Amino acid sequence: PVLYSKMKEVLFPELEETTDFEGYNLQQLRQFFALSFLSFYFIRWIEGYLDSGMGENNLSYGSNPLSMSADKFKKLMCQITGLNVELVSSIIKDLTFNPSSFHTSVTIQPFIYSQGEYYILPNLFVQVEPSRMMLGALNKGEKKRVYDKLINSIEKTNLDLIGRKVKQLPNIVCYLEKTLKNNGQRICPDIILIDPTRKFLLVADYKHFIGPISGSEVEYKIKELEKAINQVQKYIDNLNQLSKVELISIQDFTVSGLIITHKPLPVPIPIKNNIPIVDMETFNQLVEDAIFKKMGIYGVTKSINHWYHSEPKNVFSEFESEIIVEDWKVKRTQHKFA
């Protein structure tokens, strides 16, 4: 029960247990991960214990994959998780490495099937973030429509959470997913926050980006981030031309933009970008601090802008290293703290 409670916190905490994954629901998926994690972590602990006893001068036990036939693997997972074979088979199928998908990897589809045998590395399985694994597996597999539906549900839930939080700020008018028209153009920002007393308006989009784990995914996320930046800038341009939002006059208001991501996004940000990007946890914490200090949304935005545009505390410098492999010379560009 304790481990399952923890799994509820890390595996799609925004969704109901009855959420359908086409073949199993979220409650069954959490049960699968919780009990698989427990079993695989024990194997990892045994491997570490054997390594510590052998000493550095002896051959280490290392991390060894499990290998068994498909039927035996499904039977084992049924015994571990207590789920029936149909449910287990469906989950295993989604988490089985698909070599025909160029962008997949063992960190999102950790079960390897080859020539009638399944291979799984317990040490890898217990170190991968479950939500990231499942979202990546669904997005790379045959269930892209399930992935899109899940992302939409998660974004809606988190957007409502942000809305409930900011409505506690003083002098605040909050609109979520408000459609506005301007000279034939239609915009629908996720969040519009207005403080009439400060003549200030903040417009923001929430993006449930999942962290990239490969070079191609980093490139894709950079493009998606650029699209989000341009979208928020479009909101700002249109709002600067509007005289009011519903019955609230916004003439001569200062309009600022923001992008809120689910978690910190480990990708390069365009140097010339003036739209701050902040993760949801940090944003909610800043809002809580502002509520305690009786500050409005202007104060929250000022803090974000100061943090975002200040010089980074950690500065990296670039250097190259060379690795000689027979007749080849491999050059690697790396970074270190300056």
List key phrases describing it.
338 residues, alpha+beta, five-stranded mixed sheet, three-stranded antiparallel sheet, 44% helix
What does this entry look like structurally?
It contains ten helices and 14 strands. It is 44% helix and 20% strand. It is globular and about 70 Å long. The mean pLDDT is 88. The two termini are 47 Å apart. The longest helix has 29 residues. Helix 1 crosses helix 2 and helix 6 crosses helix 7. A hairpin with a 2-residue loop joins strand 9 and strand 10.
- Termini Cα gap: 47 Å
Structural class: alpha+beta
Task: Outline the low-pLDDT stretches.
Answer: none
Rg: 24 Å
Assembly classification: single chain
| Sheet with the most strands, sense and barrel status | 5 strands, mixed
Mean pLDDT: 88
How would you sum up this structure in a few lines?
With 338 residues, the protein is an alpha+beta fold. The chain is built from ten helices and 14 strands. The longest helix has 29 residues, at 26-54.
How are the elements arranged and paired?
Blueprint: H1 2-10, H2 26-54, E1 66-69, H3 70-81, H4 85-94, E2 112-114, E3 117-120, H5 122-125, H6 130-140, H7 144-166, E4 173-176, E5 180-182, E6 185-187, E7 191-195, E8 200-207, H8 215-239, E9 244-245, E10 248-249, E11 254-261, E12 277-279, H9 280-293, H10 297-309, E13 316-325, E14 328-337
Parallel strand pairs: 8-11, 11-12
Antiparallel strand pairs: 1-3, 2-3, 4-7, 5-6, 7-8, 9-10, 13-14
